[in-house]
Amino acid sequence: MKKPVLFVILLFAVSLMANAQKFALIDMEYILQHIPDYEQANEQLNQLSQKYQNEVEALTQQTQSLYKDYQSKAASLSEEQRMKKEE
Fold it and tell me: Which key words tag this protein in UniProt (predicted)?
């Protein structure tokens, strides 16, 4: 009676250890480099990113220009005109 029970327990333990050994290593960089659509999508993303970055830089320069213009004229403006510009 003890031998079959011991055998079942041992078999169960071995099967658990066998399942624990299953793992995989995936090289996503290799996979993505060999997918042509990935490279095309990545290029489109870079172009779109550059476009938006250029827009942000242009708006930043425009804002700085308007602020400098306001600061240079602020001394000559009346209080009401200054408040309107600040809104």
Answer: Coiled coil, Signal
Domain count, the chain: 1
Is residue 19 situated within a structural domain? no
Domain encompassing residue 86 = 47-87
Three-state secondary-structure class, residue 80 = helix
Q: Give dist(CA 17, CA 61) in Å, integer.
A: 64
pLDDT tens digit sequence for 20-36: 566 778 888 888 888 88
pTM above 0.70, yes or no: no
Range 74-79 average pLDDT: 76
